[in-house]
Every structure is written in structure tokens, then in C-alpha cells.
Amino acid sequence: MIVLEDVSVRYKKAEDEAIKSLSTSFRKGEFICVLGKSGAGKSTFIRCVNGLQQPSSGEVVVNDVSLTTLKEEELRKIRRNIGMIFQHYYLIPRLTVMQNVLTGTFGKRKPWKNLMGIFSSEEKEKAIAALKAVELEQFADRRVEALSGGQKQRVGIARALVQDPYIFLGDEPVASLDPSTAIKIFKLLKQIHEEKELVTIINVHDVQLAKRFATRIIALKNGELIFDGAPELLTEEVMTEIYGEGYEEQK
Ligand SMILES: Nc1ncnc2c1ncn2[C@@H]1O[C@H](COP(=O)(O)OP(=O)(O)OP(=O)(O)O)[C@@H](O)[C@H]1O
């Protein structure tokens, strides 16, 4: 479903490559957590999967379509069905929860309709269903700026859900949340993942969360894939390789 073939990314003026000759593939049903120290290349990697970052060399193929040669407009079409959530949510604070969730439909609509804020009853129903799925329907008319971090991330998840995604990406979606809220968000993501039979890929710093929820863990170090396997294969030795000596202090 998702194939990365010898993918490298070099940012302009950067001395070193952020991703180095990375090859791997992901299929439906896999819940993948991506580990690695700060700067290891996790965000760059995840942005390659939906074409937000084009590789300097190599190829990314999603559902048999190579993203590498696509123009921005064609990439946008691919991204319509790839939900993404972020550490800082990327919501519009002054708009309501409902209005934010409806922005998830923008990729499939005519731009003037987005400008006018005109939504069909089908789109509104979809947004209500997404809000129910994240248990926020009673907050539909509340402004996002008045929500807690955990609630904001649930709005982010609802916004991604209205896209009818087949891939769900998370770039450190719980990094700003307390441990118990982080677990709740992961439980919700796993539940949605199973219900919708997605492929889910999430960058996370919390190793315990990755071990608890992932069906597969990959780890990056200096842009290289240094581990790819089942959570139970993540030994102390591997952990030391990923995080260096003294990683236990980060727990
Ligand atoms: N826009 C950019 N321009 C130049 N270099 C960049 C850019 N974005 C990231 N980098 C560099 O690429 C490398 C990988 O960065 P990336 O953000 O992918 O790492 P990360 O593992 O997600 O880090 P973190 O856990 O801190 O978010 C780093 O050395 C970073 O400084």
C-alpha cells in the first residue's frame, strides 16, 4: 500500500541528508510507531509519505501511485484521503469545533465553497459523526481556543476522520499532552485504526506508548532506518542504539 524505495532527503543548504536511502513498505492494518532521537528524521520521513516533502532521490508509492513525479495539484488529490494530526494541532483557534472539523472536507470541495463556508447536509452529517467518534459532539459550537490540549487533538482527529482516510499519519500528536491524556488519544487512534482498517503511522517520543499500541515499530537514527520489527523485539540493546547511552533517564 505504501512503499518507500531508496528514499533520501537533503534539505537546501544542509550538509547531511535528513533521510538516507530508506526502503520499507507498510500495509493496511499496521499500526506503526516511529521512534528516534530529536533530529533523527521522523518528521521528514512522515512528510514523505503524503508528499508534503519530496525526496531528493528515490520513490514513494502510495496505492500504486508514485508521488515523486506528481504535480502539487495531483498530490493534493492523494492527500485528500490521508488524515494527518500534529503536535500543535494546526486548528483555527477562533473558529468553532464544528467549523474546524468541516475544514477536513476542503480538499474535496470547490475553493469558492470553502470561502463562502457553504457545506452540504451530507458534509455536516459526516462532521457530526466524526465529532461523535471522538466524543466531542456537545462541544460542536464551542470555540477551539477554549478547549484543553487533549480536546484540541480530538478535534484534529475528527477533522482527519471527515476525509474518509485510508492512511492516518501523526507527527508527535501527543508530545504536548500529559501522560494520561496521551494514552486516551492513543486508545482512540487505535480504535479508529481498527474500525476503519487503516494504515497508521505515528511519530512518538514515548517508547512505552509505542510498545503498548504499535503492531510494528521502526526507528531512525541520523536519517537511517536502524530498527524495524515487532514491539517485543525492542531490546535494551536496540534502545541504546536508538537513543545512545543513558536513554533510561529519558523514560
Ligand atoms: N526545513 C528544513 N531545512 C533544513 N533542515 C531541516 C529542515 N527540517 C528539518 N531539517 C533537519 O533535518 C533533520 C531531521 O529533522 P526532522 O524534523 O525530520 O527530525 P525529527 O526526528 O522529527 O526531530 P524532532 O523529534 O525534534 O521533531 C534535522 O537535522 C533537522 O535539523
Beta-strand level of the residues, as a percent range? 15-25%
CATH superfamily of the largest domain: P-loop containing nucleotide triphosphate hydrolases
H/E series:
EEEHEEHEHHHHEHEHEEH
Instruction: Calculate the terminal CA-CA distance, rounded to whole Å.
Output: 33 Å
Q: Give the names of the bound compounds.
A: adenosine-5'-triphosphate
- CATH-derived architecture of the largest domain: 3-Layer(aba) Sandwich
Strand order of the largest sheet: 6-7-8-3-9-10
| Low-pLDDT ranges | none
Indicate the overall shape.
globular
Protein name: Phosphonate transport system ATP-binding protein
InterPro entries: AAA+_ATPase, ABC_transporter-like_ATP-bd, ABC_transporter-like_CS, ABC_transpr_PhnC, MetN_ABC_transporter-like, P-loop_NTPase
Keywords: ATP-binding, Cell membrane, Membrane, Nucleotide-binding, Phosphonate transport, Translocase, Transport
GO molecular function: ATP binding
